[in-house]
Amino acid sequence: MKASQHPPEFPSNEYVRPNLDWECGHLCEGCPCRIGxxxxxxxxxxxxxxxxxxxxxxxxxxxxxxxxPRSGGGKCENGPLPDGTCCNAIPKCQxxxxxxSIRKRVVMFTVIASFFVLFVGISRNxxxxxxxxxxxxxxHASATFTKLHTKLSGGDTSNCAAxxxxxxxxxxxxxxxxxxxxxxxxxxxxxxxKGPIETSAMDTNCLSCHAGKNFHQPDxxxxxxxxxxxxxxxxxxxxxxxxxxxxxxxHGSAELMTASAKIxxxxxxxxxxxxxxxxxxxxxxxxxxxNGYTEVITAFQTDHPEFQQIREGIRDENxxxxxxSVHLRTGKIPRVLNCNNCHERDGRGExxxxxxxxxxxxxxxxxxxxxxxxxxxxxxxxxxxxxxPSYVRxxxxxxxxxxxxxxxxxxxxxxxxELDDYVREKKVSIEKLYETGENLExxxxxxxxxxxxxxxxxxxxxxxxxxxxxxxxxxxxxTPVIKKVSTIDRWMVLGKFNHDSHQKGLTCLxxxxxxxxxxxxxxxxxSIKTCVECHSPxxxxxxxxxxxxxxxxxxxxxLSPKSTEPSIR
Amino acid sequence: MAKKEIxxxxxxxxxxLLTTLSIAxxxxxxVIYSPMYPRHAYLSGWALFAVMLFLTFFNLRKRVPFLxxxxxxxxxxxxxxxxxxxxxxxxVHIGWSWPAGIFHQLLACCFAVVFLTGVFGLWIxxxxxxxxxxxxxxTPFERIPYARSNLRQQAEAxxxxxxxxxxxxxxxxxxxxxxxxxFTRPCNRWAHLRQSRAPQTAHAxxxxxxxxxxxxxxxxxxxxxxxxxxxxHMLDYQYSLQSALRLWLFAHIPLSYSLLIFSVLHIIIVxxxxxxxx
Lengths: 569, 278
Fold this sequence. Notes:
Number of helices of chain A: 20
Largest sheet of chain A: 2 strands, antiparallel
Strand content of chain B: under 5%
Number of strands of chain B: 0
Number of domains of chain B: 2
Shape of chain A: rod-shaped
Shape of chain B: elongated
Structural class of chain A: mainly alpha
Largest interface: A-B, 77 and 66 residues
Largest sheet of chain B: none
Number of strands of chain A: 6
Radius of gyration of chain B: 27 Å
Oligomer: heterodimer
Distance between the termini of chain A: 75 Å
Radius of gyration of chain A: 49 Å
Strand order of the largest sheet of chain A: 1-4
Helix content of chain A: 25-40%
Distance between the termini of chain B: 65 Å
């Protein structure tokens, strides 16, 4: 826009009142009347002036004088009419609201509309969906859930009422509920309180279905409300994942952990959730640390303690002699093995199936004490049974019968004299190898992988002592004692682990350094550093606490009240 | 004058710096302390409500005589900077994720509209006055109808003077057809807001057309009429920008009250439906 040579022309001395609600309808034409509309918006225009009667001395009637002000044009030419009315009538107008007045009305309308929207929104039909801050998880939105809580609440079908006390009554009770909350759980002091949100009235609603889920450990310095971790209204589908921040709000607090350790020392040890009660799992018994699990942990990748087994140098006490290195290295055994040949995972990929002699060892460790009766195309050969040592000894002491039975079943010999010849022949062969039955028994039980027997004798095959811890019989004529083999199902029982989910991009040897392991007592567990390589912000894999640990422990049976209600997972 | 401007710039810089530091402090406090204070949403909610009350009723200063502490300009500045802070506080309160429920979305939308109209109002109240001054035809908003009426009267008088009843009434027809309504009411509001010169150009074309048919004596009249049209455009420009300076409040103020009403219900619901309600 260019600057004009001419300034705008308007009556600058005329007083305008933009704060009034109404303005003259003639204003848009630039000629409003001087009096303007009434406060209620009525046109007050009559005449341009109110003539004044002037009576000069000696006059009876006097004459009317125009009183139009100078700003209105001064006295008019025609003057008032004889009856004293002004000759210039002002045309009536339709007064208009000023901008300010319109804005006031818009404000009023908006306020009324807002109340109307709220009134409709919180009416019975729309209330639940209107005030719902976000979709609830599919589980809590399901028909099954509705049916269950309706049954528990005695007929209230509102899903909100299943959790919120406030929804159990009408809108008219909200302000009392709100006031009640502000006086108890949500006082100003509570709002600035550090640490986790403590248990609340809402938890009782959760626990009516999720019975027994309110136990973590008896040494907790602060109790959690369910909704502290389990956030609802975060969207349909599964509930939002539990963030590690909720765990570290306690476990990352030195103050709370110290308090927890103190409580723990005064608590009955039997009150703690025990790992010994975990179904039929075979695990190594361990003592709970003196202070419990109260190390301060702020994040898995930074200050999570090393796994207890590695930290405390725990060894495998299994009596079986097994050398991983020998079994996995090429050239040392007839066949190269890989991990999967022995370690087979269960259907869930969580545990390893048991390793058995019959399935995993027999191929190489045949227990063939008689090399002259080997296996051939149609004959299985003669072998010692695997299992109870007394059965083995009984087998050895009944070799005549065993050979005779073998001859009948596999050699096709049925005549008595031929059977006797066969057995005699085999006995001669055995005597050549072992000289006496006593030597044979010692060879079977005590021969090592190299065929060495204590006392300087040698055996042509590897006996029980190759793999087992065999000791001398405790009395004469007793069976040698073989220490029972006990393979642990899982070493780290405080966390969950799934081998299948770790298969992608990893081999067993990436975590388990077994190529150099020569002793059974080697646990071969990976260090926490191996886990952190992936489970960290740098590694990019989920590193939340709940990835491995579960908050909800089962209370020891001796301490928990027996629940008759079936609980939901 | 220059000293005053420097002082103003320095004061503005100080205020902006203080607001920026406050927002940065708020965000830092959120990142550091929110994990420790599980009920931080309540705290930020109450703070936001207090800020909204302050922002909504800052006009009270004008209405209540005993509250006249500080100048109107000071309170307006405070309104602006506290308003900017409230935006950050709002995002902290909602946890950086847009709410999903109907009522909460309504509440959040209300806040967003009030905030954005506030930003828009700030922008136009800072930029439009300069434009209005630069245009050089400054007229108080309430006086614009008078000025318009005056221009119309001048234009009509000019056109009527050229009508003699004998010659072709080209200019009179042109006026009646193209300029009659133009002088009667405000025109081209959006074009002026967009700083477009299209309406002026259109009229210039029309004048060029008419000039071909005008007699020698009428050319001067056309020039005068063209000058009046130019002044009317400037008056419309004043009207458009000054209207905008008033009309943005039609969204900002009413929705501020709605926001307060919704906020009160929000607080009641949050407390009544909290885990602590028994």
